[in-house]
C-alpha cells in the first residue's frame, strides 16, 4: 500500500485523545438524565400490563385530584392521525383504542416529585378487555393468529392482500434461475434458524426535559427539548409531526448520549414531556426506568430463517435461497430489508432468491440496532457457508474467497458492488497472527464468519468559524455517540492544515445548526466528515481571497500550505495572523457546509473465534477473538479499534447470552440487566483487531463507515467454532448452554 | 419505592423491640441488595427498615479451632471472604460467598441476608448446609438455634417468627471429630451462563470427611435452584459413607441428588437442564471437596 | 412527605449536610439533592455498576445504599477523583488508553478501578476483569478499559516507561 511509503495525512490516522475526554472522566459531561431546569417537575408514564388488549375506558380523575399533580395526558391530547404511519407513531406514543405490548404507554402524569407522579399514575383507572397475544413471528403468520391491526393487509409485489393479516409486507429478490442453480450443485445444505429479540442495551436510559416559552411570545409558544438522542432533527421532526407545530418553534438540544446503537434514533419521551409541560405550564423531566427501556423501546427483531445453498465440487456457489421472517413488534417496520441485503452480501450468487416478511407481533415496536437486521441473517448464511466449505473439504476462508464479489459484480438484492475491500479483508484474516496460530486441546474449535455491510451517507451539516487568534470553532448537528466530534474535527484540521488543538468542535442544537440525519448507519465520521472538509475548503478559499485583498494581489497568486498563506516571495501570513487581520476588520470568516451524501459503500469484516465448549454443561468460553475489517481510512485508529471491539462484543452477547424471554401471555420475563445478560468484562477476551484500509473513492480521504460491520459476524463465527469444538451446529440465538446440551443430545428439548 | 421509616439501633434488644411491634411493619435491613430491589418492584412495602449494621454482635467474625466459626448476620461477603481463618478453614464457604454479585455487591450483601431472602438459588445456603451450619435467632421470647438446612420454608419464606432477627451463623470446626488425622473438605459450584453477575441455574455444595484409611466417613450434599428451597439431599451424602472416594462413587451420589431435585423451567433454565446440571455439579463438587480433604487445590 | 432526616456526612472530602427521606437512595441524594450528577443510574437494581461510589473507601452501588445510611460516613464520587493538581492518574490513564466511548459507565468504572488499585496495586488481567464484572460497558468490549486499568496501575506505581 502506498500509505506505507509516504504518510499521506498530517492529522488523519493519528491516535489523538478525544476532545470530550476530560469531561467524561471527571463526571462533568451532561447526559440526558443529568439535565435539570429551574422549576422543573417530573413526569411518569403509565404503561400497559397486557400484551394485547382493547381499552374499554380510562379515568384519570383520581390522578388529577392528587395533591402535587400538575398535569395528566393521554392519547386524547394528541392531534388526530392523518395517515397510517402517523397513526402508528401516534398510537405508539399513547395507545388510543388498543394496547399492543406490555409497556405500551397509555397515559402520563406530571407532578412535583417523581414519587407523586408515579403514585398518581397508579391512580389512573384503565379498563381492559384482554385479547390473546402473539410474540412469535411464525405464530403471528398463522391463519388463526390474533390480529393486531384490523385494517392491515399484506403489501407485496402482487398488491395488497384481501384479508386482515399480521404480515405487513412481503418482498422478493430474484436473480437467475434458482432451480437450475440447485440442479447444478454437487452439494446442497439447508437449515432453519430461530433468533431471539435483542436490545441495544445502552446503559443510559432515555431521558427528556421539555419546556415551553410563554404563549404570548411572538413565536406563539416555542418548545425546547433537552434529550438524549441520535438525532436532534429527527426528534424535532417527530414532535412537529405529532403535535402539529411549526418547525421553527421546536428547538431540540441534544445532550451527551450514554450509548445508543440505533435505539436512540426513535423518540419516546419527547412528545409526552412536551404535552405535560404545556399543560403543567412548567418544565417537565421524564426519565425512563430500566425495565421500561426493555419493555417499551425498540429492540431488534426476533427472526426465523429458512436457508438453502448449493455449490459445485470445485467450490463455486451455484444457488442460494432464503426466507426471512422478522418480527416488527407492534407496528410494521422491521429491518428485514437490510437483513436480506446482508444475507449473501459478500458473495457472487449466480442464481438466488430471497423472500422477506415483515410481521407485526405483540412486542415493542422494533428500532434500529447496529447493522439493523444483519446479525441474525449473517448467522444463518455463514453457518451454511461453513457447512458447504466443510463438505467440500475447503478451508473456510478459501471457500469464501473463491466466491467473493468484486467491484462491478451484481448483488442478489439489486445494484452492483462498488470499490470494495472484501477480498483484502479475507486475505488479511488468512495471514493474521490468530488464524495462523495452531489451536489445540480437547473441546476447542475455531470458526470464522464474514460480512458485508453498507454504510449510509445522508444529510449532514458542519459550520466552521475562524476566531481572531487563529483558532476555529466547529459546530455540527451530528450528535456525537462515541467520538465523532473528534473524528470530524480531525478531518477539518486535515483540510485546514492546522494542528487539531486549534479546532474546538461542539455539537449544536436544531436552532443553531444546519439539518442532519441521525447519527446512525455508520455515517457520521464519513458524511459529516465530508461536510467538515467542504466547509474547511471554503474557509481557505475565503481566507485566500481576504489575503489577496489585503495584499492587493490576484487571488490565484495566494497559495496556502501547512498553515501559511503566501503570495510571491515576500507576502506571508500564518493562518493566525490572517485570522487576526480579517476578524479585526472586514468581517470574520466562517462557512457552513450542508451535504447529502448518496453513496452507499460497503465495509467488510471477517471475525475469527476460538472457543472451548464444556460438553457436560454446554458452557462456551471464548479463548481468542480477532476482528479484521476494511475501514477505508482509519481517521483515529484507537477509536476505530474501539468500534471493532465494542461491536464484536455486542455480537458476542447476541450470540451467547442475550434474548427477550416471553411467557404465553406475551409478558417479558427478563426486563432487567440481571436476566437480560449483556457481556461483562469476564465474558470476552482481549479482542485483537486488524485494520485493513482500502480507501473509499467517494470520500476525499477514503473513509468508510466503521461502526456497524463488527456486530454482524460474531454469532456465525462462534457457531462455526462450536461446530469444530463439539460437532453440533447451533440453530438458535442465543446459543444458550441449554440449546447446546439439547443439540448434543445430553438433555431433551 | 413506598415511603418508610428508618431506624439504626445499636443493640439486639432495641432491634427486636422495633421488629416485634406489629404496628411498625418493620423488616431487618442489612446489605439491602435483595431487599431494596424487591421493594422497588413493589413486592412488599415495609413500614420501617431496621438497619442492623450498627449492632456489634451482627458485625463479628470469630473463629476458634474447637468452637468453629461464628459469622454475624450483617457481615458482608467481601469481609468474610477476606478473613484469613475463613479462607484457610472454610474454602467451601468462600466458594459460595465470593460469587454473590460482583465487587460492589460483595461489600454490601451478607450471608445472613442471603439466608433470610430464602431464594431457591441462594448460593451460600447449600454451602452452609453441607458444613452443618446453624442460625442463631433472637426474638421477643429469647434466642433459639435452627439448622440452616431447616431455615428456608418456601421461596422467600423462612422459619423466622414475627419479631425474630437473625443474629449470627455458626459453622462447626472443619474437622468433624477428634481423630487427629481425619480430614474434610467442602466445595460449592454453581452453573451460570456468564462469567459472573448471574443467578445460579443450578448449584451443588458437597462436603466429605475421610478416615485414616482414605474411606469416606461422612458426607453431605445440598443443592440450589432445583427445588422451592435450597435442598439438603441427605441420602446422597449417606450413600458415600464407607465408600472409597472414587469418581464412580461420586457419580452414584450425584445420581441420587438428581433424583431428589425438583426443578422447574423458567427464564434462567429448563427443568431438564437443571436436573442434568445437578448430576454434573454434584460430581464436580464432590471431586473438589475430596481434593481439598487431601489438602490439594481444586482443579476446576 | 415531611418524613425527612438530616444527614451529615463527608462527600469528596467536604462536609455536607442534607435532608432526605428514608426511601431515597444514596444515588438519588447525590444526584438530585447534592447535584453530583457524575454518578449515573443505569439500572437502579445493582446490576450495572454505573452508580459505583466509595463508602468509607469500599466500593458500593449507590442505588443499593440509602441516603440515611451515610450519616457520619465518607463518600467518594467521580467528582472527587481530580484535585487542584489536576486529573487523578486513573483518569489520565483512561484518557491515554481511550478507555471509554460514550462515557456513561466511565464514572462507575473509574471509581471501581480506584477501589481495585487501592487494595491491589498490581492486578492481573484476570483480576481486573473479575473486579470490573459488576460494571457493564456496552461500547468498548472492555479491551481498552482493561488496558487503561493496567496503564493506571503503572502510573500509580511509577512503573510506566517514560514517555518518549
Question: How would you describe the overall organization of this protein?
Answer:
The complex is a heterotrimer of chains A (749), B (300) and C (164). With 749 residues, chain A is α+β, with helices and mostly antiparallel strands. Chain A has 21 helices and 29 strands. In chain A, helix 12 crosses helix 13 (396-402). Chain B is built from eleven helices and 14 strands. In chain B, the strands form four sheets. Chain B has a five-stranded antiparallel β-sheet with strand order 4-5-10-6-7. In chain B, strands 11-12-13-14 form a four-stranded antiparallel β-sheet, with helices on both faces. Chain B is globular and about 55 Å long. Chain C is an alpha+beta fold. Helices cover 32% and strands 15% of the residues of chain C. Chain C has helices at 26-33, 89-96, 106-119, 125-131, 143-157; strands spanning 5-11, 14-20, 52-55, 58-61, 74-76. Chain C has a five-stranded mixed β-sheet, sandwiched between helices. In chain C, strand 3 and strand 4 form a beta hairpin. The longest helix of chain C has 15 residues, at 143-157. The model of chain C has no long low-confidence stretch (mean pLDDT 95). Chains in contact: A-B, A-C, B-C. Chains A and C meet through helix 2 and helix 19 of A and helix 2, helix 3, helix 4 and helix 5 of C.
- Assembly level: heterotrimer
Radius of gyration of chain A: 27 Å
For the sheet with most strands of chain A, the description reads: 7 strands, mixed
Apparent shape of chain B: globular
Major beta sheet summary of chain B: 5 strands, antiparallel
Percent range for β-strand residues of chain B? 15-25%
Give average pLDDT of chain B, whole number.
95
Number of strands of chain B: 14
Most extensive chain-chain interface: A-C, 57 and 56 residues
Helical residue percent of chain B? 25-40%
Q: What's the helical proportion of residues of chain A?
A: 25-40%
Structure class of chain A: alpha+beta
Gap from first CA to last CA of chain A: 53 Å
Number of helices of chain A: 21
Number of strands of chain A: 29
Query: Looking across the biggest beta sheet of chain B, what order are the strands in?
Result: 4-5-10-6-7
